[in-house]
Amino acid sequence: MNSSRISSNQNGKANCNGTPDRDSAVGGDTAKMRAMAVRLVRAVDTLGRLPRTADTRPAGTRSAWPEMIRESRVAIAATRSVSGARPSPAAIDDLDRLAMLLWNLPPRHRELLWARACGVRWAELCHRHRRSRTTLNRDHRRALAALVTVELTGPDQKSA
Fold it and tell me: How many CB atoms lie within 10 A of CB 101?
């Protein structure tokens, strides 16, 4: 193998034909992109654990019962649900930061990143977007790379 044809990409991996591999082609460091994906999953978890009042619940979970009856200590045991621990202030701050960063991305990237963080299956996303899994996976990597870039450069400069 000719050493003049061997190049290395941003990750330091050698490629024999001189072209960057697919991770550097979408402009991102794999470790940073994975860390961002984990942060998005944590943000979804944080949002789910935030306390809710009657005004912030989805319409389907509201009750017509008066407030005094719902908050009564006497309740049927089967209707009680155990809520998780409230999120830490640091987790809420990270959720806020990610939410602001997501607004710097195009809507289709935002939707794809948030759907994957919420655990929506690839098959469902393929059906919704009418695209192949390979294409959606590529778009997901590009969206993660764009989100990492927006975080590193600052939210003032838009990235697409």
Answer: 20
